[in-house]
Design brief:
Blueprint lengths: L17 E4 L13 H10 L5 E4 L2 E3 L3 H7 L10 E4 L2 E4 L2 E3 L9 H19 L4 E5 L1 H15 L3 E5 L3 H4 L3 H13 L2 E4 L2 H9 L7 E3 L14 H7 L7 E6 L8 H5 L2 H7 L3 E6 L9 H10 L6 E5 L7 H6 L2 E4 L8 H8 L4 E4 L4 H4 L6 E4 L4 H13 L4 H10 L2 H15 L4
Parallel strand pairs: 1-2, 1-7, 2-5, 3-6, 7-8, 8-9, 9-10, 11-12, 11-14, 12-13, 14-15, 15-16
Antiparallel strand pairs: 4-5
Helix pairs in contact: 1-17, 3-4, 4-6, 13-16
């Protein structure tokens, strides 16, 4: 279904019209990309009129690359409607692996005519961008060209980009253009301050969880789905099969755990992506360690189906290198599952109490193994874990976001 106009929220005349700008956003050929952004902003769309612009990288060699990397830059519809919200996907020039410091400028140029059309048809009065680079810098240029206020939400990749002077300069330019800089964790808010952004212009608004979608289901039925026995001890991880998610770091500590728990099973939920795909390497690692009977690759799952492997497990683990605010932690907790993860970025802000799980130093294999060993033997209060997730539902987060947008537009 396509449309050239964006839907209206109730009483649209009383509220600022928001243009959401994010290159990471779900579409038919990549339905899980940026789901966490859609979850957040479509809820905002129940209160304010919004449209979405999700620019997609393109180059003349993309088709050739897809011959041997089929998931590379899947093609999105130029216009589609998702849950009543119109999503536009203009293309911008981006050579794979080359001139990455220019991606944000090309992104802005590639989006210009789409925004000019939306300025006329939708009358947007505010740009809300997600990720500091390339989206934030591109949105900063567009906000200046169309003379509208800007908010930028930092989501985790900024820390790596900021280590490069060329990218850091562009991130800072975008953040300086913004009226408000929002971190999905306080660690990201503090990153903005370290980059020179006035503290008064920053705030942290974490992501949240849909506790209706993510809730415990019958454990026995969940285990039967995956051929698991009641006596099995089950770990689960969810995420793209990429290096920074750390599946390989979990697999490498499994042999010692298996000696203590011969019925240990590790469920890996997640699919390949067009960049940094580790699936083949992970499968080789499992074979080399003789863990074929203990590790199961379940592939990608729709969000509505994740409650099944989460309910089948005893412990959630993610040995991640970098996270802004990992939604999947709250999703696991909403299913009553304790979390073991690494002491990086916003992770300790989510797993903030010992009754919710364990935090271990990044890259410390023995500490990870010990946390998993202790977590499997601990008698967790799953009701309390679920209650914590319920405290982090979307209602409070969305009310705060809507207030931020309205404060930027005092005439409304």
């Amino acid at each position: 279904m396509t449309s050239s106009t964006a839907p209206q929220a109730e009483d649209p005349g009383r509220h600022p019209r928001i243009l959401v700008y994010s290159s990471l956003f779900p579409f038919p050929k990549d339905p899980t990309a940026g789901v966490f952004i859609r979850e957040r902003l479509f809820r905002v769309g129940r209160h304010l009129p919004i449209a979405v612009v999700s620019p997609k990288a393109w180059s003349p060699v993309d088709g050739l690359i897809r011959w041997f990397r089929p998931r590379f830059r899947p093609v999105a519809p130029k216009v589609e409607v998702q849950q009543g919200i119109t999503v536009y996907a203009p293309r911008f020039f981006s050579l794979p692996g080359l001139f990455k410091a220019w991606d944000s400028t090309f992104m802005a140029l590639g989006s210009y005519f789409t925004l000019r059309r939306l300025k006329h048809e939708f009358g947007f009065e505010h740009i809300d961008a997600h990720f500091g680079y390339p989206d934030g810098h591109a949105a900063g240029l567009l906000a200046r060209w169309f003379n509208v206020p800007l908010t930028i939400t930092l989501r985790g990749s900024e820390k790596t980009y900021a280590e490069n002077p060329a990218f850091r300069k562009r991130i800072v330019a975008g953040l300086n253009q913004a009226s408000k800089v929002i971190g999905v964790s306080d660690s990201l808010r503090q990153l903005a301050v370290r980059l020179g952004i006035p503290e008064a212009k920053t705030l942290a608004i974490g992501n949240a969880v849909d506790c209706q979608r993510f809730q415990p289901v019958d454990r026995r039925e969940a285990r039967q789905r995956y051929g698991l026995d009641e006596a099995d001890r089950v770990l689960v991880s969810v995420g793209w099969l990429i290096e920074r998610k750390g599946f390989h770091r979990v697999i490498e500590v499994l042999p010692d755990l298996v000696r203590q728990h011969p019925r240990l099973r590790y469920l890996i939920v997640g699919g390949a992506t067009g960049v940094d795909n580790m699936e083949a390497q992970l499968r080789r690692q499992v074979a080399d360690l003789g863990l074929e009977d203990h590790v199961r690759f379940l592939g990608s799952m729709k969000p509505d189906d994740l409650k099944w492997p989460l309910s089948a497990a005893d412990l959630f683990v993610l040995a991640t290198r970098r996270e802004g605010w990992a939604n999947v932690f709250l999703e696991a907790m909403a299913c009553g599952l304790p979390v073991v993860t690494t002491d990086v970025d916003g992770n300790p802000e989510v797993v903030c109490k010992p009754e919710l799980g364990r935090i271990v130093p990044f890259g410390d294999g023995p500490a990870l193994a010990e946390a998993l060993r202790a977590g499997l033997s601990h008698d967790w209060d799953r009701g309390a874990i679920r209650a914590y997730a319920e405290e982090n539902s979307w209602d409070n987060r969305i009310a705060l976001l809507v207030r931020v947008f309205k404060e930027i537009h005092p005439s409304w």
